[in-house]
Amino acid sequence: MPEKKPLLVICHTQACQMYIGVLLNRIWYAPILAKNADEGIFIAKKSSPLSLVILDSDLPEDTFRSALTLLRTDDTVKSLPLVVITTRNDKNSREALLSQGCAAVLTKPLDVSLIFGVLARLTKQPRIHPRAPARIEVEIDDGKTRTVLPCVNISEGGLYLRTHIPLLEETVLNVKFRLPHGTEELEIIAEVTAEVVRTSPLESRLSAEPGMALRFLTISEEIKEQIRNFVQWEMAGDLEWEPEPSAL
Question: Does 74 share its domain with 17?
Fold first, then answer.
């Protein structure tokens, strides 16, 4: 696995820091937390090179504007992409923030697929869809042999299957599986490309899982949405955005 890229996260409450920090860690980033822009810049000067800055905009208007100005002018962080998280979902607010130099504006509560895609684009990550662990059985059929293999993780772009005997690259498979949490059976009869990414046994590469990655070639939008909802639940289902007043 690649190292987690460090991100500076500026939130004025511990509840907000916990929510965003846990979520970023789960989608493979290393959040560095600060309560305000001054503290964030102070930390940034002592930290390893950062990939971007995330600023929570739930502040008094004057405080938020000052923080935005500071982050766009300080030499330590001004060259980094700035992502603003806001409860405002109107077009004018979004366009105003983008015109002030923000690289992206995300709305609370956070959509895992959306924030993953935005951060991947801004940090130049190759993966564009978030994946979640999925301990399910997957039936694959190459037209000659039907096999059931355990799934390691899944995203709307594909899945990873555990096997010590992976198929050849570019093998086209029909795939069928059921997502947990009581969802209806997902019968994905699709042409997918099976790309071998790990073939070493566990005893030779402890950090790798032997198996093969499949990229979906044909998949309905309905099934994509169900997978997206599953990943959202797995990554953020146990997190609450709005904290109790006592947690502030």
Answer: yes
The model's pLDDT over 164-190, given as tens digits with 9 standing for 90+, comes to: 888 888 888 888 888 766 445 544 444
Count of domains observed in the chain? 2
The CATH number of whichever domain residue 192 belongs to comes to 2.40.10.220
Is 240 within the bounds of a domain?
Answer: no
CATH no. for residue 24?
A: 3.40.50.2300
| Residue span of the structural domain in which 163 resides | 132-235
DSSP assignment string, 79-100? TS-EEEEES---HHHHHHHHHT
Helix H or strand E encompassing 234:
helix 221-236
In this structure, what is the dihedral angle of CA atoms 10, 12, 18, 19, given to the nearest 10 degrees?
-80
Distance in angstroms (rounded) separating the CA atoms of residues 238 and 196: 33
| 17-73 per-position pLDDT tens digit | 999 999 999 999 999 999 999 999 999 999 879 999 999 998 888 999 999 999 999
pTM of the shown model: 0.82
φ, ψ for residue 218 (rounded to 5)? -130, 120
Give how far Cα 110 sits from Cα of 3, 19, 156, Å: 23, 10, 18
